[in-house]
Write a structure and sequence with these properties.
Blueprint lengths: L13 H10 L11 H21 L7 H25 L11 H26 L9 H34 L1
Length: 168
């Protein structure tokens, strides 16, 4: 019995939509001029200092510094991710996500965990552990508290934004 060699093809509009949407990607320069934007950039820069100061030492010998590294790197990566979302206005393309609640939860959890990490960092810094790494650990402790205060500020602004959304 002979077989049919007919091939049916379908065309998708995915590539057309992809090229159209990528060419209209928005960029919000004004976000960096707001207080939450400035705080976010400060969190990224000083958070980078926290984990690089610790990463340059033998932190893996002391579990407390491992915890500080986890918190610092985890929230540094997420903060960079959220900065990209805010700068490219991606949140406007995904309206199903409650972005004010996401921001409040993110900043609130970052504040609490960074506060714990900063306290652990500060209480673990002693000359008895390793005097060679003392200055790096002491500096990371200072910057961890500064980053904690930045996340506290962003938590406050997220709370104000969330409250204004729920009152409408």
């Amino acid at each position: 019995r002979p077989r049919s060699h007919t091939v049916t093809t379908t065309s998708s509009s995915f590539t057309a939509n992809l090229s159209a949407s990528s060419s209209t990607l928005a960029y919000d320069r004004e976000f960096l001029r707001t207080v939450p934007g400035l705080l976010m950039v400060t969190e990224i820069v000083l958070g980078l200092l926290v984990w690089t100061l610790i990463a340059g030492t033998e932190y893996f010998l002391y579990p407390a510094f491992g915890w500080v590294m986890f918190v610092a790197v985890f929230y540094w990566v997420l903060t960079v991710f959220f900065l990209i979302i805010y700068m490219t206005m991606t949140y406007t393309r995904i309206p199903q996500v409650p972005w004010t609640m996401v921001g409040l939860c993110f900043n609130g959890s970052a504040f609490v965990l960074y506060l714990i990490a900063a306290i652990v960092d500060a209480s673990s810094v002693t000359k008895d552990l390793d005097s060679h790494n003392y200055n790096s650990w002491a500096a990371s402790s200072f910057f961890a508290f500064v980053v904690t205060s930045c996340y506290a500020g962003n938590t406050y602004f997220s709370l104000i934004s969330w409250r204004s959304r729920t009152l409408q």
